[in-house]
Amino acid sequence: MDMMIKQKIKQVKKGDQAAFEDVVSFYQNKVYQICYRMLGNTHEAEDIAQEAFIRAYVNIHTFDERRKFSTWLYRIATNLSIDRIRKKKPDYFLDAEVKGTDGLDMYSQLPAEQALPEEEVESLELQSYIQQEIMALPPKYRGVIALRYLDELSLLEISEILDIPMGTVKTRIHRGREALRKRLRHV
Amino acid sequence: MLVNCDKEIVRLMHEYLDGHLAKTEENKLRSHLQSCEACQKHFHELKRTVAMLKSSSDIQAPVNFTANVMEGLPQEKKRVGYMRWFKAHPIITAAAIFFLFMMSGIFSAWNQDSQLSVSKQKNLVIQDDTVIVPEDVVVDGDLIVKNGDVKIEGEVKGDVVIINGEPLLASAGQVSGDLKEVNQVFDWIWYHIKEVTENVFSIGK
């Protein structure tokens, strides 16, 4: 599959637009998932995921073919998602970082029991419930968690995608997972 | 929660979940988990969280997503579009190239030989751009003249073909076959085609 993508990228670089169609259909679910995990809204996720592909197409000449295309593409998608989150600035109070916790905010400090009553949890689809809990994480934790459980990406790849050191990726995954554990343990 | 246990144990749990745990550390974690119920619960909850995250990781992009992206792309260069069309229709492309070469061949042949040329027959007289069949001469076979006029005073036992020229028939002149005059490129092509078909059929005979 990697070879197929490499070939298609070469064609796209030569200006063949149709070759890009295969690239999009191959990666659409992955890119959409990253955006959805980070934004928590289907419309916004679709919007940003589309934008990510268009950016990738327009800037394809800056992509170094010796590197992994997915890393480059996911990076565009995460950066665009982060930009969108910054522009929105929702729930300012609960989203504000608690000092000395490296990004954990008031949301993650709330006891999970109070998140939703049992009956309501059952009526919600597990999928959207999990997403809701992910949305309670600060964006930088959301990003690593989204990438970690998308295709089981390695920590090294995640550090390349987000352009942050391995140690930071590790810390964020550990803390993000810990926060989710607290919020999901009663499901 | 985990009051008595080292933070180190929790770190080991996460390292384990990321597949970064060395064998010795794994043994350490395992032996601790066997003796500590609180940590066991903690570890179980983490694994469950991971399982939930994994199980919900098959989010599909909306239908028409790819089509919408393709619609949003800037226009591609025309050149590439043509190249792809050519690749998709090799037979038409081959035919078009063949036709192009054929036409250019015919046109260049037409334009290049403005030299007077006559089919090889004895006793013909050539004056300036005029080929003369003298009075007492009988030409056996066809007479073909390119880029020149023809004046027939004697006799031609066959066809006379004049390409890019005019016949100047003397009253006494006699042609037993047809007299063909070809003055336009397309006439000339037509003449060639007829000649080829005639040849093909005469082979058949």
What attributes characterize this protein structure?
heterodimer; A: 187 residues; mainly alpha; Rna Polymerase Sigma Factor, Chain: A; Arc Repressor Mutant, subunit A; 2 domains; 11 helices; B: 205 residues; alpha/beta; 3 domains; 4-stranded mixed β-sheet; 11 strands
Q: Describe the strand arrangement of the main beta sheet of chain B, using strand numbers.
A: 1-5-8-11
Low-confidence stretches of chain B: none
Q: In angstroms, what is the radius of gyration of chain B?
A: 46 Å
What percentage of the residues of chain A does DSSP assign to strands (E)? under 5%
Which fold name fills CATH's third level, the topology of the largest domain in chain A? Arc Repressor Mutant, subunit A
Largest interface: A-B, 43 and 36 residues
Strand coverage percent of chain B: 15-25%
Q: For the record, give the distance between the C-alpha atoms at the N and C termini of chain B, rounded to a whole number.
A: 108 Å
What is the overall silhouette of chain B? Answer: rod-shaped
Low-confidence spans of chain A? none
Whole-number tally of structural domains of chain A:
2
Helix-strand topology string of chain A = HHHHHHHHHHH
Show the helix and strand layout.
The complex is a heterodimer of chains A (187) and B (205).
Chain A: H1 2-13, H2 17-39, H3 42-58, H4 69-88, H5 92-95, H6 106-109, H7 118-123, H8 126-135, H9 139-148, H10 155-162, H11 166-184
Helix pairs in contact in A: 1-2, 2-3, 2-4, 2-9, 3-4, 4-10, 9-11, 10-11
Chain B: H1 7-17, H2 23-35, H3 37-55, H4 65-72, H5 78-88, H6 90-112, E1 117-118, E2 125-127, E3 130-133, E4 138-140, E5 143-146, E6 149-152, E7 155-157, E8 160-163, E9 167-169, E10 174-175, E11 179-182, H7 185-204
Parallel strand pairs in B: 3-6, 4-7, 5-8, 6-9, 7-10, 8-11
Antiparallel strand pairs in B: 1-5, 2-3
